Amino acid sequence: MVKFEQIKGFVFDLDGVIADTSVYHAKAWRQLAEKLGVTWTDELADGLKGISRMDSLDLILKTGGIENKYTEAEKEAFAAEKNTNYLNLLKDMDATAILPGIADFLKDLEEHDYQLSLASASKNSPLVLEQLGLAMYFKNKIDPTTLKHGKPDPEIFARGAEVLNLKPEECVGIEDAKAGVQSINGAGELSVGIGDKNILSEADINFADTSELTLENIKKALD
Ligand code: BG6
Ligand code: MG
Hints:
Layout: E1 9-12, H1 21-35, H2 42-48, H3 53-63, H4 72-90, H5 102-111, E2 115-118, H6 125-132, H7 155-162, E3 171-175, H8 178-187, E4 190-194, E5 205-207, H9 215-222
Parallel strand pairs: 1-2, 1-3, 3-4, 4-5
Helix pairs in contact: 1-4, 7-8
Bound molecules: 6-O-phosphono-beta-D-glucopyranose (BG6) and magnesium ion (MG).
Family: Belongs to the HAD-like hydrolase superfamily. CbbY/CbbZ/Gph/YieH family.
EC number: 5.4.2.6
Protein name: Beta-phosphoglucomutase
């Protein structure tokens, strides 16, 4: 495995790692799923984490056995409706939505001269970072509209290292989604999974929540 001294950069997921926004995504998808008659389950909620807007809609329709029921134009309209629901939920969001320990961790990384990039599938990530007051940390963002493949494909995390001019093995990827951990592993970076260890069993390092995410704990896990 990678040595702690080898690490030069950190590639972050956003929703569910930096901020509590995965809850808002789930709420907005649930509104749409139930309107379409698709039963909401924890399994569906987990499967939706990390994947793109249209992949999410496809998974919901498939789960309900209605993947062939709608035209592309209707699907576009559903995706737009979900995004409107999501943006409404984001309206009053501020720095209080930053997950525990993340603000200190980002400060610590900057003070220790680590490089940072963002590998979020969300087209709303610039807005979210602005509202959280964290945009200054992420000058290196991957624009998800330029990707050929979504998570779990390695493309987004590979690009996260490339924009920092670092080799994958010099980077740590941080994720709360199974698809995201698979993307980090495929890119050849050290994967840190935040959340349920059973779901994120493929991660190199597991933390139960973001308050455990510190340089010291990463070093400890690698020693
Ligand atoms: C990911 C979220 O970060 O972004 C998913 O985990 C979301 O839940 C995806 O569907 C796409 O986000 P957006 O904001 O472009 O619809
Ligand atoms: Mg996430």
